[in-house]
């Protein structure tokens, strides 16, 4: 137990994934009152879905517990990666498929199903 603002609070323990043990949480700030937290956010490369919110909700809950229950001031930053190689590759594939359709389309603007299936198999 430790005392903060006249109240005895249990020590905050954090699971150390390297040692598989629970260690006391000790902020880097010398006053011991400020927690600086940087979290990697999601890299979104598909349409938005409910799973994307899990990261935001879980980190918000932890942040509120650290702030409201343990009394730390929390400086929280989360990035959002908006592009990576998967997005670039997918865009290139879509471009090549569109060109493939354009070059092989018949007069009625259709492409043989077998050609489309073969093209999609290589995406």
TrEMBL record:
InterPro entries: Cys-tRNA/MSH_ligase, Rossmann-like_a/b/a_fold, tRNA-synt_1_cat_dom. The keyword Ion transport does not apply. GO terms for molecular function: ATP binding; cysteine-tRNA ligase activity. Keywords: Aminoacyl-tRNA synthetase, ATP-binding, Ligase, Nucleotide-binding. GO terms for biological process: cysteinyl-tRNA aminoacylation. One of its GO terms (cellular component) is cytoplasm. It holds the Pfam family tRNA-synt_1e. Residues 33-96 form the tRNA synthetases class I catalytic domain. PANTHER family: CYSTEINE--TRNA LIGASE, CYTOPLASMIC, CYSTEINYL-TRNA SYNTHETASE. This is tRNA synthetases class I (C) catalytic domain-containing protein.
């Amino acid at each position: 137990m430790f005392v903060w603002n006249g109240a005895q609070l249990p020590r905050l323990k954090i699971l150390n994934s390297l040692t598989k043990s629970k260690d006391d949480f000790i902020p880097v700030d010398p006053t011991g009152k400020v927690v600086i937290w940087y979290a990697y956010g999601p890299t979104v490369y598909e349409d938005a879905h409910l799973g994307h919110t899990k990261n935001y909700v879980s980190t918000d809950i932890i942040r509120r517990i650290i702030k409201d229950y343990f009394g730390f001031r929390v400086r929280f930053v989360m990035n959002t990666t908006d592009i990576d190689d998967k997005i670039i590759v997918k865009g290139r594939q879509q471009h090549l498929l569109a060109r493939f359709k354009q070059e092989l389309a018949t007069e009625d603007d259709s492409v043989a199903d077998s050609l489309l299936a073969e093209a999609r198999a290589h995406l």
